[in-house]
C-alpha cells in the first residue's frame, strides 16, 4: 500500500455541510496509487457512506474519532420499477442529495436482490443512481429507497484498510436498514487484500462487519457489538482471511456467522458473548476453517453450531481447538437448535476436529445442556482431549459418526493456495493484506 499521507484538519470536517462528503473528497483527491487519510479527533454525523478505493487507508485517533450514522429515512416507490434501471420513482425526495448512498429494497426479497447505490441526480420525484437496480421491484411488495448504507466500504478494490476508528450505527434512529449481502457497518465486496484493525463499532441496523466475494483479509483487535444482525459475517465464497483478537457481544443474531462458502478462514483469540443466536455458526460449503483459542460464552443458542447442510454442499474440514465454550444454549431447545448443546453438529458434516476445548454448561448436573451433540448423519468427527464439565450428557454421538483416528485436515488462512480462489472473479494477484 502507498504511504502518501493526507491529513484532514478538524475545521475541514466541522465546517463542511457534510462531514462524510468532505472525507470522501479527501479520499478522491489522493493520487492514483492511493495513500492514507488521517481523521482527527472529533464526532461527526455521516449522511452517506465513505467509499474506499484501491491503495487507500482510512484511519483515525481510536476512540476519539467517532463517526455516527445520521438518522435514517424511508422513501416509498410510486409503483413498479424494473431491473437494471439507473433511477427510481419515489413518492417524495425531500432531503435527498447528490452523492448520498442509499439502499433500494422491498419486503419480499433480501440478499443480493437489494441495491446499494449512490445518488447521481434528483429531479421532481425521480432519483438517479450510479448503477442499475438489482431486481424487479413490484408495487405490492412495498419497494422503497432507504438512507441505509455501510459507514465505510469498498467495492472492487485491493489493498484497502480501515483502522483506529469508533463507529456508531445509531440503530435507535433507523427506521429500516440494509441487508447482510449488500451492506454492514464496515463492508467489502469483490475486494482483495483488505485490512481492518482497532475499530470499535456498535448499534448498526444490520451486520457489524461483513464482506462478500473477497480474498486475503486481516481483521484484528476489533469489536462489533449490539448490531441488529451478526457481529461478523464473512460471506459468498470469501477465502483466506484471518480474524485475531476480536470481540462480538450483544448482537441480535450470532457473534460470528460463516455464510455460504466462506473458506480457509482462521478465527483466533476472539470472544463471542451474549449474542441472541449462536456464538459461532458454520454452514453451507463453509470448509477448511479454524476456530482456535476463542472464548464463546453466554450465547442463546449453541456456542458453536454446524448448521444442517446436505451433500454436496455440506460442512467439512474444520477445526475447533483450545476454546473455552461455556454457558451457551441457556434457552430451552428452540429453532436455534434441536438439542441446545454447547457444540452441536447437524446435517451431513464430516471431517471435523474438536480438540482440547474446555466445555461447560450454564447450569449443573442433570438440568444442564449436552456438551457435544453429533447428529446421526455426520461422519468422521474427531473428539479428543476436551475437558467437559457440568454437561449432561457430556457427549451425544453414535459411534459410527466418530472418527477412529484423527482425519488429516488442511484448514485456516495459512493453508490457502491460488487454486482455492478459482470460484472468485479475477482479482489482483498476491496473498496477504498488509498488517
Verbal overview:
3% of the residues lie in helices and 38% in strands. By secondary structure, the chain is mainly β. Among the domains are: 74-146; 230-419. The longest helix has 10 residues, at 19-28. The protein is globular.
Topology, number of strands = 38
Overall radius of gyration: 22 Å
Q: How helix-rich are the residues, as a percent range?
A: under 10%
Question: In one word, what is the shape?
Answer: globular
How many strands, which pairing sense, and closed or not: the largest β-sheet? Answer: 15 strands, parallel
What is the oligomer described by this structure?
A: single chain
Structural class: mainly beta
Summed up, the helix count is 2
pLDDT under 50 segments (min length 5)? Answer: 430-435
How far apart, in Å, are the first and last alpha carbons? 10 Å
How much of the sequence is in beta strands? Answer: 35-45%
Mean pLDDT: 92
Quick recap:
The protein has 435 residues and is mostly beta strands. The chain has helices spanning 10-14, 19-28; strands spanning 5-7, 35-38, 42-46, 50-52, 56-59, 65-69, 74-76, 87-89, 101-105, 115-123, 126-129, 144-146, 152-155, 158-168, 186-189, 192-202, 209-212, 215-220, 223-225, 232-235, 239-244, 247-249, 256-257, 263-268, 271-273, 280-282, 290-292, 295-297, 304-306, 316-321, 324-326, 343-345, 350-355, 358-360, 372-374, 379-384, 387-389, 395-396. The strands form five sheets. The protein has a 15-stranded parallel beta sheet that branches. A six-stranded antiparallel beta sheet has the order 7-12-9-10-11-8, with no helix packed on it.
Amino acid at each position: 500500500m502507498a504511504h502518501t499521507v493526507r491529513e484532514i484538519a478538524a475545521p475541514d470536517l466541522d465546517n463542511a455541510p457534510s462531514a462524510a462528503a468532505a472525507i470522501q473528497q479527501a479520499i478522491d483527491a489522493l493520487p492514483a496509487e492511493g495513500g492514507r487519510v488521517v481523521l482527527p479527533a472529533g464526532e461527526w454525523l455521516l449522511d452517506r457512506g465513505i467509499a474506499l478505493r484501491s491503495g487507500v487507508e482510512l484511519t483515525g485517533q481510536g476512540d476519539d474519532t467517532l463517526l455516527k450514522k445520521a438518522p435514517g429515512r424511508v422513501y416509498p416507490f410510486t409503483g413498479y420499477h424494473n431491473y437494471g434501471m439507473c433511477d427510481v420513482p419515489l413518492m417524495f425526495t425531500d432531503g435527498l442529495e447528490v452523492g448520498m448512498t442509499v439502499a433500494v429494497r422491498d419486503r419480499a426479497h433480501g440478499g443480493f436482490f437489494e441495491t446499494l447505490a449512490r445518488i447521481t441526480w434528483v429531479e421532481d420525484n425521480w432519483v438517479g443512481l450510479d448503477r442499475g437496480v438489482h431486481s424487479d421491484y413490484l408495487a405490492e411488495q412495498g419497494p422503497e429507497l432507504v438512507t441505509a448504507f455501510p459507514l465505510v466500504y469498498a467495492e472492487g478494490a485491493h489493498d484497502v484498510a480501515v483502522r483506529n476508528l469508533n463507529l456508531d450505527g445509531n440503530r435507535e434512529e433507523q427506521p429500516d436498514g440494509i441487508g447482510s449481502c449488500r451492506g454492514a457497518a464496515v463492508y467489502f465486496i469483490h475486494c482483495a487484500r483488505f485490512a481492518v484493525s482497532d475499530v470499535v463499532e456498535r448499534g448498526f441496523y444490520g451486520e457489524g462487519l461483513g464482506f462478500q466475494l473477497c480474498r486475503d483479509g486481516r481483521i484484528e483487535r476489533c469489536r462489533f457489538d449490539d448490531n441488529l444482525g451478526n457481529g461478523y459475517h464473512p460471506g459468498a465464497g470469501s477465502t483466506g482471511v484471518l480474524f485475531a483478537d476480536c470481540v462480538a457481544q450483544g448482537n441480535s443474531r450470532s457473534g460470528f456467522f460463516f455464510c455460504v462458502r466462506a473458506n480457509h478462514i482462521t478465527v483466533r483469540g476472539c470472544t463471542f458473548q451474549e449474542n441472541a443466536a449462536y456464538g459461532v455458526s458454520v454452514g453451507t460449503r463453509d470448509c477448511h476453517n479454524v476456530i482456535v483459542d476463542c472464548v464463546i460464552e453466554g450465547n442463546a443458542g449453541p456456542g458453536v453450531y454446524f448448521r444442517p447442510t446436505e451433500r454436496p454442499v455440506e460442512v467439512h474440514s474444520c477445526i475447533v481447538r483450545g476454546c473455552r465454550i461455556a454457558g451457551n444454549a441457556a434457552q430451552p431447545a428452540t429453532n436455534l437448535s434441536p438439542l441446545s448443546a454447547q457444540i452441536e453438529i447437524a446435517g451431513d458434516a464430516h471431517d471435523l476436529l474438536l480438540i482440547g476445548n474446555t466445555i461447560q454448561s450454564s447450569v449443573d448436573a442433570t438440568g444442564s445442556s449436552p456438551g457435544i451433540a453429533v447428529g446421526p448423519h455426520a461422519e468422521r468427527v474427531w473428539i479428543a482431549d476436551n475437558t467437559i464439565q457440568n454437561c449432561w450428557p457430556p457427549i451425544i454421538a453414535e459411534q459410527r459418526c466418530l472418527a477412529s483416528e484423527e482425519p488429516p485436515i488442511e484448514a485456516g488462512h495459512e493453508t490457502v493456495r491460488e487454486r482455492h480462489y478459482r470460484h472468485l472473479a479475477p482479482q489482483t494477484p498476491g496473498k496477504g493484506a498488509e498488517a
